[in-house]
Amino acid sequence: MTETFKNSCVLSPSFESPNPAKVPPLQAPRWLAAMWKKVLAVLLGVIVGYWLIDDFNPDVVQGKRVLITGGSGGIGEQMAYHFARMGASVIVTARRENRLQQVVARCRELGDKSAIFDYIPADMSNLTDTDRVMNEVRARLGGLDYLVLNHIISAPLGLWVGSTENLTHLDKLFDVNFKAYVHLTSHALPLLTQSNGHIIVMSSLSGKIAQPFTIAYSASKFALNGFFNGLRQELKMKNCDISITLCVIGFVGTENAVRELENFHQDFLLKSVPPEDPADAALAVIKGGATGVRELHFPYFSMKIVTILRDIVPQTMELFFRQVYQLNS
Asked: Which segments cross the bilayer (predicted)?
């Protein structure tokens, strides 16, 4: 019945009005078209301005209690120094105790005399260390406002051939780069719930776009995105005011990153993509975490454009990365 009704409302292609009249196509007035162009220009300016305006106030960090994993070097070390300058109390954890001592000594020089600066040697491949670290943080700081998950295990570049070595490395990499993040977060949730705190998760462009020679590492970063994006939704469903900031980080000139590329003879990549300063990356991450940004891109425009193009022209982006990570004989 419905179909018959629909068909009865459709004119036959052969139907013609006995007195056809030419109706000129509707055209928008010139003033209206010009007005829309201006409106679009203003909206674009507002969006760009919103991205570029820095509304971060360092005072929001003063007096806060911070745990940084992977704090013995690179971006983690620089975050410790920035947090110290802003008046926060900081505990850093990593495997290298001598480096942790140096980082803490520098934090004490930069930070408030009343703040607490300390370190906890820990190996994140041993998942029982995650509980021990959080217990010590509770005892030393009395609570927690910022959990900064920054540690990684080095991922040597190379083709995936399905070897025993590949599989063994995959297991260890997931323990350190994914499972330890989940365990630390789980142990920290009661403290962060009390403080309405922040979780900062250091991910990577490799967690948005799979890249050659880093398959296992990329998979661990994709896993982080899946877990923490889901956790964010569950926290909101429980009206729990803990922010989660996922950081999509590009090529930063840390000692480990540059060394791995040099060892694998990625001369083209090193020459064509200038590395970002770890201190700049660290400051951007803190700003994003403190303001509760859902997803931070650094450097902003290059990382944002690449992630947008990933969904529009995926094959082109894959070709681009194959060319960047050239296969050396």
From this structure: none
- The amino acid present at 26, given as its one-letter code, is L
Distance CA(317)–CA(200), nearest Å, equals 28
Q: Give residue 42's pLDDT.
A: 53
Beta strands in the chain (DSSP E): 65-69, 89-94, 117-121, 146-149, 198-202, 243-249, 295-298
Among residues 119, 217, 300, 325, the one annotated as catalytic is 217
Q: CA-to-CA distance for 261 and 156, rounded, in angstroms?
A: 9
Q: Which CATH architecture has domain 59-324?
A: 3-Layer(aba) Sandwich (3.40)
The number of beta carbons lying within 10 Å of the beta carbon of residue 143 is: 14
Token reading at 237: 């469903």
Q: What is the DSSP string of 190-236?
A: HHHHHHT-EEEEE--GGGTS--TT-HHHHHHHHHHHHHHHHHHHHHH
Q: Tell me the one-letter amino acid at 206.
A: S
Task: Determine how many CB atoms are found less than 10 A away from the CB of residue 292.
Answer: 12
Tokens of 228: 């923490």
Peptide bond into 275 cis (omega under 30): no
Question: What's the predicted TM-score (pTM) here?
Answer: 0.81
- Say if residues 95 and 174 touch (Cβ distance below 8 Å): no
Instruction: Write the DSSP string, 63-104.
Output: T-EEEEESTTSHHHHHHHHHHHHTT-EEEEEES-HHHHHHHH
Residue-wise pLDDT for 280-317, tens only, equals 999 999 999 999 999 999 999 888 998 899 999 999 98
Give the chain's mean pLDDT: 85
**For residues 251 and 211, what is the distance between their CA atoms, to the nearest angstrom?**
13
4-13: Cβ within 8 A, 24+ apart: none
Q: Distance of CA 324 to CAs 303, 307, 320, Å?
A: 15, 16, 6
- Is 217 a residue of the active site? yes
Handedness of CA 142, 143, 144, 149 (dihedral sign): positive
Asked if residue 252 has pLDDT above 90, the reply is: no
